[in-house]
Amino acid sequence: MSYLERSHVKHALIQMKRFHRDLQRLHSDYGLCMLDNTGRRNILMSSAQEEFFAQALAKSYTGVSNNGKTGEPDILIGELKRELECKITTPTPSGGINLQTDYTTLGKKGALDFLYVVADRTFEKFVVLHYDQLTTDNFSVPSASSRGKAKLLKHSADKSCSVLWGNVKSKNEMELAKLNKKLELLGDHAPKTREKIMKSIKYWTDTPTNYRYEFEGV
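and the corresponding structure tokens:
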């Protein structure tokens, strides 16, 4: 069970949205559009994520800090003796969601908690995920071109994940439910159709879990 509560997330997201609106206004004053590049936008929002979640956590725990220095924890929760790594991302144009970390840093730390805020392009709706004590085993080995960034192997970290905002559904389970329903309605008829359904069931049973993210507003 996560030490982060829904009330913590709501407090932080409200503050982050307010900060985002102010940044948009500032960009607009100078004839710039902050939403043209969500990657750069998320970099601007990363320090706000750390600050506002630290504020929220400090309402429930002692010894919460986030000094922002290189090599220091994004958020340290002294009472729990936990370090919380904060990440913010946005779906790609194709809808993919990449949850990443710095592979070398994680290797040195051994294990870390991760707080991923997945924001839509307009920064109005979110999915917030807390992963407990992930290691490099939960991430792919980074390629030479990825600058040390490793992608989370979501299926390997599934049991460590608490969904704090929005919803995450298993596409595998959804497809299997549909196929089993078809099989039930088919009964003993149409053996070729049954064989085709059974192949599909095997596919979705053996395939690593695919996830469908449902965003929630604040």
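(Above: one complete record from the training split.) The helical segments are 6-29, 38-58, 103-109, 171-186, 191-206.
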